[in-house]
Design goal:
Helix content is 8%, strand content 49%. It has a four-stranded antiparallel β-sheet with strand order 3-2-1-34, with no helix packed on it. A four-stranded antiparallel β-sheet has the order 4-5-6-9. The chain is globular and about 50 Å long. With 408 residues, it is mainly beta. A hairpin with a 6-residue loop joins strand 26 and strand 27. Keywords: Signal.
């Protein structure tokens, strides 16, 4: 007797019942879930070794973390960690932001926990640039020229297994991970002179190809898989080649734009573009296509800081020294709106003087006002200041993490 049809029927019934049970369980699970939006700010003090964590929605403190010196802050791509770089102290503190997202295709689950200073202690001679790329976090040590590579999951778990490479001599440099390769800066033979260019190294630290000209290379950002680097005479783009092939480097001149150069870059996430500085009174919108385009946007006075809006991909925000906040449309290149936000912060004097910094968190751009001890929370839609958050000390550098998801 042939029992295969019966077995097939039983299997189908079992699978259907299992599917219905799983569907019912999933539906029941979603009954107990709710949509949640949460953004958390991390603010470095200008004078002291302190990082304040603040929840944007209610302005409540989410933690105060004591360090050895005033830090430079950088966040990971995932937003799960913030790096507090203390170069002169030879340390990098790692803060777990307490926010994480798990992708489920049609939605993401959000987990909200306490922010905490992780036990991981990263030390070096003079650690400087932190760059996250291709799932790897690269820390460049200016004091040695070495690069330490980390996985974020190891940092969060406290099981740090750094991979160390020695691509060259000590200098004020950078390293950008791209798949199995890294793009690293190349020092001048004379240590008193600035960097000469960029090169690609493999996973063992061995050079792949030659040095690409990029005098005094400074500043880098990533946008949709492409890295851009600022040079005294232009830009260098690093394009991934895919598979086991090394990325390609391409230099583009900015001589046609007149005096100035790019030394700070921000990269778009939803659209492939970069926003960079260009001299003290301009920014440039950069498109790294087959025929790269660079548009210069003149500003009414000198620029203090700028930030991109990941949620509204066509918007950027620029604060100028007269205390005015401007919204720039990066598609049209037009400044669409401007408001008076802070008292003037002159760009004269030392570059390290306390001046405002910007971070975008959801529907708000948050601006530190160091001399007032405030965070100014501004609507990205109207550019109106909705409220302020007092922060002890001299709030200076700032990064934002967070977003929306389903909370179970």
């Amino acid at each position: 007797m042939n029992r295969l049809p019966i077995l097939s029927t039983l299997l189908w019934i079992g699978a259907t019942a299992g599917g219905l049970a799983a569907g019912a369980a999933l539906a029941d699970d979603h009954k107990h879930a709710a949509s949640a939006t949460h953004h958390r700010l991390f603010i470095g003090d200008h004078a002291d070794g302190v990082v304040h964590a603040v929840d944007l929605e209610d302005g409540a403190s989410a933690g105060v973390f004591r360090l050895d010196q005033s830090p430079a802050l950088a966040r990971s791509t995932s937003g799960r960690t913030v790096f507090a770089v203390q170069g002169d102290a030879g340390k990098v503190a790692v803060i777990g932001t307490g926010l994480s997202f798990e992708d489920h295709g049609d939605h993401a689950d959000i987990a909200i926990e306490d922010a905490k200073l992780l036990p991981t202690a990263i030390t070096g001679t003079k650690p400087a640039h932190v760059v996250d790329g291709s799932g790897t976090i690269a820390l460049f040590d200016d004091g040695t020229g070495d690069v330490a590579l980390y996985r974020e999951s190891d940092l969060l778990e406290g099981t740090v297994k750094a991979r160390n490479l020695k691509p060259g001599a000590a200098h004020h440099g950078l390293a950008a991970p791209m798949g199995e390769f890294l793009v690293v800066s190349v020092p001048h033979d004379d240590p008193e002179k600035p960097r000469v260019g960029l090169k690609i190294i493999d996973a063992e630290g061995k050079p792949v190809g030659g040095v690409v000209h990029c005098p005094a290379v400074h500043g880098q950002a990533q946008s949709v898989g492409v890295f851009a680097f600022g040079c005294k005479d232009g830009l260098v783009f690093a394009h991934p080649a895919g598979g086991s092939k090394p990325p390609t480097l391409r230099h583009v001149s900015t001589a046609a734009l007149g005096d100035g150069n790019v030394s700070t870059l921000k990269g778009g996430t939803a659209m492939q573009f970069f926003l960079g500085n260009y001299g003290p009174r301009a920014v440039v919108i950069i498109e790294p296509g087959d025929e790269p385009g660079v548009r210069k946007i003149d500003l009414p006075t000198r620029r203090v800081d700028f930030a991109l809006d990941d949620a509204k991909a066509n918007q950027a925000y620029i604060l100028t020294e007269d205390g005015r906040l401007h919204r720039l449309n990066v598609v049209s290149g037009a400044i669409e709106a401007s408001v008076q936000l802070t008292a003037p912060y002159s760009m004269d004097g030392h570059w390290r003087n306390p001046r405002p910094r910007l971070a975008v968190a959801g529907d708000h751009v948050v601006v530190t006002d160091p001399l007032k001890g405030l965070l100014r929370v501004v609507s990205t839609e109207t550019l109106r200041e909705e409220r302020t958050i007092a922060v002890a000390g001299t709030p200076y550098s700032i990064v934002a993490v967070g977003g929306s998801g389903v909370r179970h």
